[in-house]
Amino acid sequence: MARRSVTPTTPSSRSTPQLVQAEASLDELRREWRHLYHNEPPRISRDLLILGIGYRLQEIEHGGLGKATRRKLRTLAKALRTTGRIGPTPGLSLKPGARLVREWHGRTHTVTVTEDGFEYAGTSYPSLTKIAKKITGAHWSGPRFFGLLATGKEHPSGGRNG
Known about the structure:
It is a single chain. This protein is an alpha+beta fold. The protein folds into 2 domains: 67 residues; 47 residues, no CATH class. 36% of the residues lie in helices and 12% in strands. A 4-stranded antiparallel β-sheet has the order 1-2-3-4, with helices on one face. Helix 1 packs parallel to helix 2. The longest helix has 17 residues. The termini are far apart.
């Protein structure tokens, strides 16, 4: 990619930092956007146009994103379009040895996180949901029963504590 100088030589120089200063009109900013991006500017605020032009000037001067970063962004964009979310499905992040405590019907239940799952009342279980069902006799989300969100944040247990 050819390097462009971002130092102005004349007041009419294209792609100069001075153009994006406070005195540039909205029409000038939109023209500069068209010149730099080769498409119509989005309908965004003047401040965001200035930031976008500044980003593009830095990209031209110092090079753009690497191939790996562009590939990751394309993957994230595709996931957002297809699933409405980006990134992996949130999961629990509990370290072995952690203890989860829940009171249910006046009795305290303690679960210990193990390398392979969970231990409750001397028995190993693959999931918190199986333990919640053992305790309550009904289907519960295990993480919800023990007051955990999928992101690992604390969360009230939903008020079904009897």
